[in-house]
Amino acid sequence: MDTYVPLRAEREAQASDTEEQCVSLEIWALLCSIWISIVMTSSPSADPGDISAVRLRLLTPQEWASILSGDPREAACWVHAAARHGFKTAQVTWGQMLLDGRSVGRDPTAAYRWFRRAAEIGSIDGINMVGRCHELGWGVTVNHAEAMRWYEKAAAKSSDWGQYNLASMLLYGEGIERDRAQALQWYMRAAGQGHAKAMGMVGRFHEEGWEVPPDLALAAQWYRKAAEGDDFWSQYHLARLLADSRPGEALDWLGRAIEGGTDNFLRSAGPDLLNHPYVTFHDAGLRALERCCRSGEACDFYAYGRAILNCSRHEEAAAWLGRAARSGHRDARHSLSVFAGRREQPADASFAKAIELIRQLWPKRNLPHGSHEGAGQ
């Protein structure tokens, strides 16, 4: 399969993937772990200031489960209270909630402070998240050297995410000296703990021949392990390697990747799939771009509209380009004006309906200067 997302494009998408994927998964894992580390027996209170450390220690796992599965704002009060009373797992969870803006107002600066508090009392997850904040500028200025220092601490304490993040910094060399040999070692250590994304990166090393002899069969084995662990990037890469020999299975993995992938992954993979010689992969590319439209972003409406326009789905294309244009996307406005003024117009009903729709959505007086609307009439 020739479709291939360049490493740089993949890295840019992965940075956000990690924010959207591993961080949101971590928060629920951490919430669940609170059930074990904190216990209490009273009924819920809406004011975290009224919840004492004694009451928190007496809460049973069943009572915590009931609180956390109920009103999100109520659950936030309990997590905040536990954080204030020094429970390190709750401090990381509360920081994550502030970072995500989930059930509370988004406040990256406050999130960083809570991650730092948790790290200072020994939370490995807190140490890793302080590194993330320094790497991505969440609540603090971007500082790659500081991010490395915290990742090294987390990795040394056997944090699989710390090992993965450290390896990624060493691989891409952002703000630090690149060291692929060290990166592979840390990816291997994280993979040894079952970290799916790290497994996928080990596969990438074997496919590219970085620090090891190129071996597509071994790369596919690593990609498969990671894909079975629901890493959508590895599902995509496995599909690439299987496309020629096992196209049916490749399509199945592409379907899973598109279903579970983040918007940034879909934005990277969609256009590449559209350029593949197999028409079936074109369909997967269209599905990827269509799913991106859930974001409500004008750029996603435009990308999907342009893609289906190239497939001669004129009426649908006009509708999506119209949505993008109404959201202020300048290229979408230009595409609509050019589309409406094409001199060689296909004699099919969908094209005629598209032209009518464009005229309804974007009257002539609102089309960009220089429009050729009506030129073919």
List keywords for this structure.
377 residues; mainly alpha; 69% helix; disordered C terminus
The parts where pLDDT drops under 50 for at least 5 residues are 20-25, 38-46, 367-377
* Nearest-integer average pLDDT: 82
Shape descriptor:
globular
Distance between the termini: 44 Å
Reported for the largest beta sheet, the result is:
none
Q: Count of helices? A: 21
Backbone CA Rg:
25 Å
Give the helix level as a range of percent: 55-70%
> N-to-C SSE series?
HHHHHHHHHHHHHHHHHHHHH
> From the helix content, strand content and strand pairing, which structural class follows?
mainly alpha
Would you count the extended β strands for me?
Answer: 0
- Strand proportion, as a percent range, falls in under 5%
Could you please describe the fold and organization of this structure?
69% of the residues lie in helices and 0% in strands. It is built from 21 helices and no strands. It has a domain at 296-377. The protein has helices at residues 7-20, 22-37, 53-57, 61-68, 72-84, 88-100, 108-120, 124-136, 144-156, 160-172, 180-192, 196-208, 216-228, 232-242, 247-260, 263-274, 279-292, 298-309, 314-326, 330-340, 349-361. By secondary structure, it is an all-alpha fold. Mean pLDDT is 82; it is low at 20-25, 38-46 and 367-377. This is Sel1 repeat family protein. It comes from Microvirga aerophila.
Write a brief structural summary:
The protein has 21 helices and no strands. The longest helix has 16 residues, at 22-37.
Task: Give the topology.
Elements: H1 7-20, H2 22-37, H3 53-57, H4 61-68, H5 72-84, H6 88-100, H7 108-120, H8 124-136, H9 144-156, H10 160-172, H11 180-192, H12 196-208, H13 216-228, H14 232-242, H15 247-260, H16 263-274, H17 279-292, H18 298-309, H19 314-326, H20 330-340, H21 349-361
